Amino acid sequence: MTCFKANIGHKIFFENAQAIIPSDTAAAPKECAGAVGAFVDRPLNDDMFGEDTFEKAECKMLSVAIDTAIKNAGLKRSQIDVLFSGDLLNQIISASFAARDFDIPFLGLYSACSTMSEAMLLGAAMVNAGYANRAVAATGSHFASAERQYRYPLEQGTTRPPQSQWTVTGAGGCVIASAGKGVRITCGTMGRVVDFGVTDVNNMGAAMAPACADTLLSHFRDTGTSPEDYDLILSGDLGALGSRILKDLTWEKGYDISANHVDCGEIIYKVIEDEFQGGSGAGCSAVVFNSYILSKLRSGQFRKVLFAATGALLSTVSSGQGESIPCISHAVVLEA
């Protein structure tokens, strides 16, 4: 049995059937106020989720998203072969602490805001190769915990610059199975680290757009496809400014994605002017994809989606030492 082909470029074609069966999402009131909120499975009343710290609330959201996705599939935890998960916090504590309650083999990931697409790519690869029958891909983030780690504690009241984005408070996860009715993951493109020298930790869109462009261009070249072959090209968390940069970068290389490109960060909030450049964080693409986008695929409104989430691989230490921001993007193709 041929499990996959990845002999040229960065692509993997998944030849064996694997499907996203159910999914689950949880998000705070701010995230649920926009168009995406109507599709969120578990709208929260507040961003603390009954916990006494932001970090505990983030961990609880992720744990609930994982557990409910498994239940929605009609499965027991013991029927899941592997969990792929990560988050933004030091030592991916939200994912690791959530995983300790599941008694499921756990592969922790750190790919910042691109963790959702990386988890899906790796889960599909594991299932496609026959090493697992069912895998869970999940991630999440919290605005307050991310601000405390990467920028300034909320109590300090620091003014946010206009180029900044708002880290999404939410989590999402899905079950990837070797059989079953559902949306198929048919291809994946692995990203490489790209660094254009951006040092502003508030300007994530400008830092991440080149990495997203690099992965999309690699995907188009390696698969022989063009933007017109997809109903939707979904980037993760570039925001308004980053989305414009992405379109310019791909257009310069001969690929015009302007007609069917949407960014998770641009659409998750109700009024983008109030959120500066829009949403970001590992939970942004996890919430948007596992709620809004999957529902459109399942209804047949979308037939083929190219999903490329993008992450900034910085830390407080690296930014404090004046380092630029290396970024990465991983892409998966989903077909109804």
In short:
With 336 residues, the protein is α/β, with parallel strands linked by helices. Helix content is 34%, strand content 24%. The protein contains 10 helices and 15 strands.
Q: How would you characterize the overall build of this protein?
A:
- The chain has 336 residues and is α/β, with parallel strands linked by helices.
- The protein has two domains: 12-177, Stage V sporulation protein AD (Peroxisomal Thiolase, Chain A, domain 1, 3-Layer(aba) Sandwich), CATH 3.40.47.40; 183-335, Peroxisomal Thiolase, Chain A, domain 1.
- The chain contains ten helices and 15 strands.
- Strands 1, 2, 3, 4, 5, 6, 7, 9, 10, 11, 12, 14 and 15 form a 13-stranded mixed beta sheet that branches.
- Helix 2 packs across helix 3.
- The radius of gyration is 18 Å and the shape is globular.
Tell me the series of helices and strands, N- to C-terminal. Answer: EEEHEHEHEHEHEEEHEHEHEHEHE
Range of helix content: 25-40%
Segments where pLDDT lies below 50 for 5+ residues?
Answer: 1-8
Q: Distance between the terminal alpha carbons, to the nearest Å?
A: 24 Å
Q: Give me the CATH fold name of the largest domain.
A: Peroxisomal Thiolase, Chain A, domain 1
CATH superfamily label of the largest domain = Stage V sporulation protein AD
Which CATH architecture of the largest domain? 3-Layer(aba) Sandwich
Number of helical regions: 10
| Helix/sheet category | alpha/beta
How many structurally independent domains?
A: 2
Q: Mean of the pLDDT scores? A: 91
CATH class of the largest domain: Alpha Beta
Radius of gyration: 18 Å
Describe the global form: globular
Strand content: 15-25%
- Would you count the extended β strands for me? 15
Biggest beta-sheet profile: 13 strands, mixed
